[in-house]
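Morning. Coffee machine broken again, so started the prediction first thing and wrote up yesterday's gels while waiting. Chain of 391 residues, entered below exactly as on the submission form.
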Amino acid sequence: MIVCVLLPRFELAIAAGGRAALALGPMALAPEPGREQVVGEVSRAAEALGIHPGMRLGEALARAPRLALVAPDPVGVADAWERVLTRLEAAGAAVESEHPGAACFEADGLRRLHGGSLDGVVAAVRAALRLPARIGAGPSRFCALAAARAARTRRAQLVRGAGDLAGEPVGLLRERAQTARLPAELERLGIATLGELAALSRAAVADRFGRPGLLAHDLAQGRDAPLRPREPTETLEEVLDLEESASGAQLERALGLLVDRLLARPERRGRTLRAAVLSAVLVEGGTWRERTVFREPTADPVRMRLAIAARLALLPAPAERLRLTAERLGPPQGGERALFDEPRARRAERLREGVCQVRAAAGPEAALRVLTIDPGSRVPERRTVLTPFEA
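Came back before lunch.
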């Protein structure tokens, strides 16, 4: 059984300064500078006017001229959500989180720790969070998410499968990045519920919507991929307060100082960095955050500065504080040799490191292999499937 912990409108509440502010009227997260001009999370009042996350900014303002746009706070959201995930992991959960505000974990392994029942697990989660959260459970990630959306803050909800999902609106598919664009088109075609989507033939859905449609069809029938819990990591970061609002060359010198300080931390213990996050508090208000994944694990300060400095050009305004965080750590730094000049065991180890680095850059689905299932089939999609690659 999978449990989903849902904190609705988490990013909007953090950016607005608290959940009490969401009751003031129609409100939505403004688009981040340089990103696609679509609104983020919306308040309940804005949702009642037909505005939803991912809607074009112009269309949202046309539906609600008095819509209040809140500047996003990606740094505050990341810090607050990390604290939530840490509390869940302290209760024993192996957590998967695709975006702030929603986290899933497998409950079967926790029952013995918390009274032997699902109710005991839910009670332990509430005690660990110390926050009003909606909690749902189901046999798959999507079922648990649907249950959490229907739950109340003091009572958990259970969705057992496709039968319980049949009456849910197709708008629930917006919770998954791969299917977020499908609900608008499905509604135009007259498909309003997940039960109506599940009743369609799989071939017809694949012909019209491709891979996202097949995923949506599986979700509507209660099927989903297994969880991929995150690996607990150490927090390694450096912060620098700028005496004056800085930009240009001043920021580059500040970045160089942060890189040197981060690499000098004794907690690093000689390990390399796979990815780093550069964040800033802006003089005009709000925050900014960008992630950099290195081509290979490195602890070379020159290469790190060159890679991260390219992100400074995306800074929308002068900054008064910079922060550099080592998001993922790699193996200790060693001598470099040609890949095919090494023994087979060492070569396999380096290939594994390469796969880990690719997944750090593009996610867990970045490194896949082709597995032959039915080579004689006339349908190309049935001949082979993609499965995770293990070097």
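The longest helix spans residues 202-220. Going to sketch it on the whiteboard this afternoon.
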